[in-house]
């Protein structure tokens, strides 16, 4: 495959289509299968169950508990039981419907609150994972109402409930499996983790790993867990049984896409009369659904980020993931931080009201500073935050962003609800909300991720050119553009002269296991290889001035020594050191084995921070909310691709607004899936390049030393997903006041949950 394509657009000669028999029950034992009627249909080539799987029937990113095909029991509605291969998709669906399953329905468990006492749905119980992060004095003691009142403190309690939301991918999930003789099986899929998928498929099919070839289609829209690897196994199983290509298509609305987990968060903040935070206590419960999927990672991230970018001397965070008979959850943009940010920011606003200072002032008095402790999974005493933490700069940028005009109009499409749902102008209330967010860059789930790369540099008639060999998968996110810019920054070779040779089979070398932040891991491996090329290529020039080749760098078209004494035009340097017959090779590897290599700090938590201001209009007669503008500023470390970074931040803001208001296809007009008129104006006020001056490449001994990868670049986009919901909620409260106490705040807001906005 030479050009990126959506898997749905792929065809293969003699291709069959996959159909799936799914469970209609949330919990039911399987007492028998009768597949004879389905097999008797002309044009049906295979009808297979778990008994036909030659390898291991289970998979999972953290806990190997999810079957490829349910064998003895089905644990959620929509779980696959039997797969069918037929000559037409309608025929495959009809055959799947003819499979007779003898069901013995069981009592389902849907309420995560009851999971600890309910009969186990897995042999190892319903509580999948627990975690506790704490430092300082026990917050429960400080939050005792009697002792808090006698000490002149306020206790702010809040409960926040988030619905589980099914994923609605931009395109259907599609896999094409093609048998290829002695080569084995080829699987074409939109994935960012081909190496990990390959290993799982091989294990489930009982094949040597070299016989499985997972080939990414290199298009946007795939994220870490969008394409369930079980779907790849099912398609490959049918392809091997029929010796023909098989295409599997899961529609957008099918219950097979892991979505955001349901969550319950209970908070208590203890605040002194002067507005300073004394303690934070939080309890987080996630509904992982029937199988573990990625909810353990989401919980751990939520617990690490539960306090937010604030200085708190006493912290206790406890979290649990439980299993239920709801569909499995999966990782979505923003992860656990999107859950906790909405909760702790609502707590900060409530604290500001309680002490009479306002939410913004309380935030300013408690901003996280370098060296302040933050919760950390690897250290029970917490870890100090690494510099920089430029929250004040981010706040200034969003607060200085010009406000949109009020009142809306004269075009009625600018009113909440747009055409046909326009209320009276006197009923519209403008609200403005501010929220701060924090992303954790010292994520322990990244440890062990690695990538290798090779960079070759030679002279062509058009000048110096580079070829990069790596397994970086371009999914439309700009990863290959980042690699070209990295080579340009390190070697001064123009991006159009950099060729990227991503192997057709990413399971071959160069290799990687990069999942969490592939740009970081792959980019750093390429950067290491390019630096090795630079050192080797210009070593003769370095020897002339008595320094090591590693102390030369490329700056604005010049080859420059570390002390800026030596300057040589880069074109002359290449002419002297790179004859037409010479090829210089550099090998690079980057492994996330320890955070010091990632953050440049010895024992600190590296964070990215940001601020969001949201402006909303609320129609208090119709109960509709229109998000007018979202302004965002964040610490980006170093921006390599400005346009790409801004687009990712803006798309995160739109997704964050939907997190609050517009999710759920079953809702009435104005509340369901967003239309083009629902998207707010997004202003990327600033992407602060805080790492430019902090980067240090020369150690005290005068030799090169390890620096933060890619010049200290930090991932962008997730922060806007995390903080935008909190800012939108704050803006709604600013417009119409807080909902009455006594009941938890449930998100996303639906008409039956936003009744308090009605006057």
From TrEMBL:
InterPro entries: Ald_Oxase/Xan_DH_a/b (IPR000674), Ald_Oxase/Xan_DH_a/b_sf (IPR036856), Ald_Oxase/xanthine_DH-like (IPR016208), AldOxase/xan_DH_MoCoBD1 (IPR008274), AldOxase/xan_DH_MoCoBD2 (IPR046867), AldOxase/xan_DH_Mopterin-bd_sf (IPR037165). One of its GO terms (molecular function) is oxidoreductase activity. It comes from Catenulispora acidiphila (strain DSM 44928 / JCM 14897 / NBRC 102108 / NRRL B-24433 / ID139908). This is Aldehyde oxidase and xanthine dehydrogenase a/b hammerhead. Residues 1-107 form the Aldehyde oxidase/xanthine dehydrogenase a/b hammerhead domain. It holds the Pfam family MoCoBD_2.
């Amino acid at each position: 495959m030479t050009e990126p394509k959506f898997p749905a657009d792929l065809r293969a000669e003699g291709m069959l289509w996959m159909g799936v028999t799914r469970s209609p029950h949330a919990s039911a034992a399987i007492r028998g299968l009768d597949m004879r009627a389905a097999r008797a249909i002309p044009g049906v080539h295979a009808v297979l169950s778990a008994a036909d799987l030659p390898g291991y029937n289970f998979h999972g990113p953290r806990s190997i508990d999810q079957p490829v095909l349910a064998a003895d029991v089905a644990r959620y509605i929509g779980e696959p039981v039997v797969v069918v291969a037929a000559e037409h998709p309608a025929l495959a669906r009809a055959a799947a419907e003819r499979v007779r399953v003898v069901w013995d329905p069981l009592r389902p468990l849907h309420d995560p609150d009851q999971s600890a006492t309910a009969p186990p749905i897995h042999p190892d119980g319903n509580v999948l994972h627990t975690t506790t992060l704490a430092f300082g004095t026990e917050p429960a003691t400080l939050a005792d109402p009697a002792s808090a009142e006698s000490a002149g403190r306020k206790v702010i309690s809040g409960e926040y409930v988030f619905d589980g939301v099914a994923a609605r991918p931009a395109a259907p999930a599609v896999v094409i499996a093609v048998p290829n003789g002695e080569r084995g099986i080829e699987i074409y899929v939109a994935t960012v983790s081909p190496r990990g998928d390959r290993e799982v498929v091989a294990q489930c099919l009982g094949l040597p790993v070299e016989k499985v070839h997972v080939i990414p289609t290199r298009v946007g829209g795939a994220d870490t867990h969008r394409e369930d690897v079980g779907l790849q196994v099912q398609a490959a199983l049918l392809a091997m049984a029929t010796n023909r290509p098989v295409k599997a298509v899961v529609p957008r609305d099918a219950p097979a896409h892991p979505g955001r987990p349901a969550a319950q968060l209970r908070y208590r903040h203890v605040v002194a009369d002067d507005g300073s935070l004394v303690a934070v206590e939080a309890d987080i419960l996630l509904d992982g659904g029937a199988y573990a999927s990625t909810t353990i990672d989401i919980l751990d991230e939520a617990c690490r980020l539960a306090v937010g970018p604030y200085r708190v001397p006493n912290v206790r965070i406890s979290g649990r993931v439980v299993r239920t008979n709801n569909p499995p959850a999966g990782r979505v943009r923003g992860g656990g931080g999107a859950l906790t940010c909405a909760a702790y920011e609502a707590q900060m606003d409530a604290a500001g009201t309680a002490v009479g200072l306002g939410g913004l002032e309380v935030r300013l008095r408690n901003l996280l500073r370098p060296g302040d402790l933050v919760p950390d999974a690897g250290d029970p005493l917490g870890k100090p935050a690494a510099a920089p933490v430029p929250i004040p700069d981010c706040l200034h940028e969003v607060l200085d962003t010009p406000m949109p005009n009020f009142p809306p109009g004269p075009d009625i499409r600018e009113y909440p609800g747009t055409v046909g749902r326009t209320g009276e102008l006197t009923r519209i209330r403008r609200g403005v909300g501010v929220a701060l967010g924090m992303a954790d860059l010292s994520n322990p789930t990244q440890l062990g991720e690695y990538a290798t790369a090779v960079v070759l540099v030679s002279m062509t008639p058009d000048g110096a050119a580079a070829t990069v060999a790596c397994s970086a998968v371009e999914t439309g996110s700009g990863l290959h553009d980042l690699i070209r810019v990295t080579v340009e920054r390190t070697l001064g070779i123009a991006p159009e002269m950099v060729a990227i040779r991503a192997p057709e089979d990413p399971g071959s070398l160069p290799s990687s296991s990069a999942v969490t932040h592939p740009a970081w891991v792959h980019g750093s491996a390429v950067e290491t290889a390019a630096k090795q090329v630079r050192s080797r290529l210009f070593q003769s020039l370095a020897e002339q001035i008595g320094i090591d080749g590693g102390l030369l760098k490329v700056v604005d078209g010049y080859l420059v020594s570390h002390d800026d004494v030596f300057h040589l035009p880069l074109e002359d340097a290449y002419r002297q050191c790179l004859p037409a017959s010479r090829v210089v090779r550099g090998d690079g590897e980057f492994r996330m084995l320890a955070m010091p290599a990632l953050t440049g700090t010895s024992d600190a938590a590296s964070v990215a921070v940001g601020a969001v201001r949201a402006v909303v209009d609320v129609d208090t007669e119709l109960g509709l909310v229109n998000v007018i503008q979202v302004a965002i500023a964040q610490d980006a470390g170093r921006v390599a691709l400005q346009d790409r970074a801004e687009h990712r931040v803006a798309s995160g803001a739109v997704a964050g607004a939907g997190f609050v208001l517009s999710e759920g296809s079953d809702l009435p007009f104005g509340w369901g899936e967003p239309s083009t008129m629902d998207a707010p104006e997004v202003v990327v006020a600033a992407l602060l390049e805080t790492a430019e001056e902090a980067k240090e490449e020369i150690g005290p001994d005068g030799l090169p030393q390890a620096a933060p990868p890619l010049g200290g670049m930090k991932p962008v986009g997730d922060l806007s997903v995390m903080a935008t919901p909190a800012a939108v909620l704050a803006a709604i409260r600013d417009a119409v006041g807080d909902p009455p106490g006594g009941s938890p705040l449930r998100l996303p807001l639906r008409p039956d949950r936003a009744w308090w906005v009605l006057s």
